[in-house]
Amino acid sequence: MVRSDVDQMVKWRPAVDPLYKPYDLPRRSKADHLRWFEWRNRDPGRRLYVIENESGFVIGSLTLREIDGRRSARLGITVGADFVSQGYGTEAMRLFIDYYFGAMGFARLILDVCAANLRAVRAYRSLGFRQVSEHYRPAAHNSYAIIRKEPYYRHLRRFFRRQGTAYQVLFYDMVLTHEEWRQQSQEEATT
Fold it and tell me: What's the pLDDT at 60?
């Protein structure tokens, strides 16, 4: 990711579906976004990447954080609301994972995902990630209240729990090792 990528990212429209609103870029000034980029880019424990579509427009971002030598890193991915459900995220992940385990030489890739984000959980599992643990986080984003109350999202209520006067939402911790990725890639090549 370079500074000019931020100009394209701030043009992303916010998600309509409350389930994906927590992943929207905050509505801030361009100067605030550039400060965010400079701060994140200076952090030696992070690496920032962008996802571009066929036209070269920035449609998403990938972040590595908690980098532990070549042993592991934690992945974060965001795809702009207008570009979800088009296969871009899974394709970008597949390409990035090849690069991560190949050229970068890492041994293990870690991520955490909101359990209510069924589409993301399904995509990660299709890429070979396995769930190793789970934890709850505060469901502080106001869209989570809509998800808990609206009948349309009834099937997702199981991922929320009340803790005192507040709600928490379940997250899965998932892992993919270099060996697991290599084995899966070999199996896909023979089918």
Answer: 93
